[in-house]
């Protein structure tokens, strides 16, 4: 922890040596959504294993590289594959890429994920704008000594998902005729899917969807004063009272089916967002 | 697990510094450390001089034990405490409570600055903690239990003493100080809660939310100490008012209610 600042700078310096652009938008691409990175033009692809201090992704369907280039005329850096707490990484490791993105100049983080829908008004294949989150992971990436250079000791989380961007994404989706939901993302550790009783509890506690990522990254993005847009792809319904077994394959299948509209929406967001 | 040797060293060091053993312990939260200034004939012992004590890192927490008399009672006050979010283990966070017990403390007053979750509260209110919810996903008693320090399965049904709460209410009424009462939810922090988390905490039964107190009270009860908990509602929790939360607001509010807080705690100590 004591040399975290050095590690961040070291990783950023390595990346800056590879880049001719200075991306202001960061994209974190969730399960099955990594294909968006293939649409990035003039792309420089940097495997995580080449970046000093980066952990290496282990989960199926997560390639594990940074893709840096232009998307709809905007300079972006995309994480194709992310790090999950359930893989055994510490919260600091899970969120290290966010620190590095901030260090190379990213101001807006677009965080995406695949998740289960607990709100009965949702359906598999829906996209949801994340308006807020519940940290149900039992951990926090900011526990430990605080570096004032990175952010305040007690960061405010009252609009972790930038309010004006929630409205902007809703409008953007409407312009594209894409139906979107809005709701609260409950982040759990996994890797087991939730039991029926747990899903009922999370819904009663105010969660609309449940997933195993995003929450730590958004805490760190808030700490680093970055703006955040969160979009979930609801790959399965997670209604506690009516739980059908699911597999990772089914999740990937729905994610694949939803991909075209998801990619379209994110590209339009990147193209038109005002930083 | 309690490190008996470390505890003996710390307690032994403190005994040499004190003429009389304190019976009342005070744990002073963010912005409330000023109470220690009221202690008479005081001996001040910086944490870094006490064997095996950790050192507080957070702004607004001075980091010393102040031993002396308050309203004629022998007290030991922690000016500055240790928080889980600083990266200390639960054992370290609660070590001072074990030390207090060891040097003779029978009753503790645990104070904190907390966010108001109950919408009938206002920033600046004082709240008697009637109960708590451990939402920190850790427990200082995990590990082997040494029966010399407490039972394997401590009862938490009366963690906050009803007698001391009643005394606090009586004294507040005598002093004309408005007092709330409620359940304190202990989160790890260090980020403030999101509005969705605040609504969740309310549904779970919480009236106030903070980042301390719960581990200390668990250990105090394990050690058989009587506990009185007082929160200063230093701000309304996220999403209740249309404004961001800042640590500055916490300090400003505690500054504003300082005199009420001081007279209340002093009058309680007098009657303990």
Distance between the termini of chain B: 31 Å
Low-confidence stretches of chain B: none
Total count of strands of chain B: 9
Please list the strands of the largest sheet of chain A in the order they lie side by side: 5-8-7-6-9
Number of DSSP strand runs of chain A = 9
- Anisotropy-based shape of chain B: globular
Strand content of chain B: 25-35%
Rg of chain B is: 17 Å
Mean pLDDT of chain B: 93
Tally of alpha and pi helices of chain A: 6
Which overall shape of chain A is indicated by the principal axes computed on the Cα atoms? globular
Instruction: Give the termini separation of chain A.
Output: 31 Å
Q: Helical residue percent of chain A?
A: 25-40%
Main beta-sheet strand count, sense and barrel state of chain A: 5 strands, mixed, barrel
* Biggest β-sheet description of chain B: 5 strands, mixed, barrel
Give an account of the 3D structure.
The complex is a heterodimer of chains A (275) and B (272). Chain A is built from 6 helices and 9 strands; from the N terminus they run H-E-E-E-E-H-E-E-H-E-H-E-H-E-H. Chain A has 275 residues and is α/β, with parallel strands linked by helices. Chain A has a 5-stranded mixed beta barrel, surrounded by 4 helices. The longest helix of chain A has 25 residues, at 248-272. With 272 residues, chain B is α/β, with parallel strands linked by helices. Chain B contains 6 helices and 9 strands; from the N terminus they run αββββαββαβαβαβα. Chain B has helices spanning 4-17, 90-102, 162-175, 195-204, 214-222, 247-271, and strands spanning 24-28, 40-46, 64-70, 73-79, 107-116, 126-135, 179-187, 208-210, 226-236. A 5-stranded mixed β-barrel of chain B has the order 5-8-7-6-9. The two termini of chain B are 31 Å apart. In chain B, 52% of the residues are buried. The chains are: A alpha/beta (275), B alpha/beta (272). At the A-B interface, strand 6 and helix 5 of A face helix 4 of B.
């Amino acid at each position: 922890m004591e040399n975290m600042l050095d590690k961040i700078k070291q990783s950023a310096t390595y990346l800056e040596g590879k880049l001719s652009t200075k991306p202001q938008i960061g994209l974190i691409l969730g399960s099955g959504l990594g294909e968006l990175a293939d649409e990035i033009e003039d792309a420089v692809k940097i495997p995580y294993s080449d970046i000093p201090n980066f952990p290496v992704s282990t989960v199926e369907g997560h390639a594990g590289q940074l893709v840096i280039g232009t998307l709809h005329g905007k300079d972006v850096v995309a994480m194709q594959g992310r790090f999950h707490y359930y893989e055994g990484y510490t919260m600091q490791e899970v969120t290290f890429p966010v620190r590095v993105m901030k260090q190379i100049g990213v101001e807006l983080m677009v965080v995406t994920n695949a998740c289960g829908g607990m709100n009965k008004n949702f359906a598999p294949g829906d996209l949801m704008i994340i308006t807020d989150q519940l940290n149900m992971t039992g951990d926090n990436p900011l526990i430990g000594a605080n570096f004032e250079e990175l952010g305040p000791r007690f960061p405010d989380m009252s609009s972790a998902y930038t309010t004006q961007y929630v409205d902007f994404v809703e409008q953007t989706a409407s312009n594209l005729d894409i139906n979107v939901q809005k709701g609260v993302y409950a982040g759990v550790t996994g890797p087991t899917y939730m039991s029926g009783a747990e899903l009922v509890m999370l819904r009663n506690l105010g969660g609309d969807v449940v997933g195993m990522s995003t929450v730590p990254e958004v805490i760190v993005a808030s700490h680093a004063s970055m703006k955040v847009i969160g979009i979930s792809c609801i790959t399965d319904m997670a209604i506690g009272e009516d739980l059908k077994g699911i597999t990772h394959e089914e999740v990937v299948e729905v994610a694949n089916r939803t991909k075209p509209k998801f990619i379209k929406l994110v590209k339009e967001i990147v193209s038109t967002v005002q930083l | 697990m309690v490190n008996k040797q470390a505890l003996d060293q710390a307690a032994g060091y403190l005994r040499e510094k004190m003429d009389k053993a304190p019976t009342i312990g005070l744990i002073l939260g963010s912005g409330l450390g000023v109470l220690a200034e009221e202690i008479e004939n005081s001996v001040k012992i910086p944490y870094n001089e006490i064997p095996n004590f950790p050192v507080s890192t957070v702004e607004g927490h001075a980091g010393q034990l102040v031993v002396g008399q308050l309203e004629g009672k022998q007290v030991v006050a922690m000016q500055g405490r240790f928080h889980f979010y600083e990266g200390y283990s639960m054992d370290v966070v609660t070590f001072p409570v074990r030390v207090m017990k060891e040097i003779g403390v029978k009753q503790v007053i645990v104070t904190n600055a907390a966010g108001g979750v109950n919408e009938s509260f206002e920033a600046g209110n004082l709240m008697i903690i009637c109960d708590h919810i451990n939402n920190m996903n850790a427990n200082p008693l995990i590990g082997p239990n040494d029966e010399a320090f407490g039972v394997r399965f401590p009862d938490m049904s009366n963690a906050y003493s009803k007698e001391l709460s009643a005394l606090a209410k009586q004294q507040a009424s005598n002093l004309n100080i408005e007092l709330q009462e409620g359940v304190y939810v202990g989160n790890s922090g260090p980020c403030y809660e999101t509005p969705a988390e605040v609504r969740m905490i309310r549904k779970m039964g919480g009236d106030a939310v903070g980042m301390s107190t719960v581990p200390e009270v668990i250990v105090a009860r394990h050690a058989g100490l009587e506990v009185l908990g007082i929160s200063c509602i230093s701000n309304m929790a996220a999403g209740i008012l249309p404004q961001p939360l800042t640590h500055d607001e916490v300090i400003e509010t505690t500054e504003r209610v300082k005199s009420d807080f001081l007279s209340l705690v002093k009058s309680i100590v007098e009657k303990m």
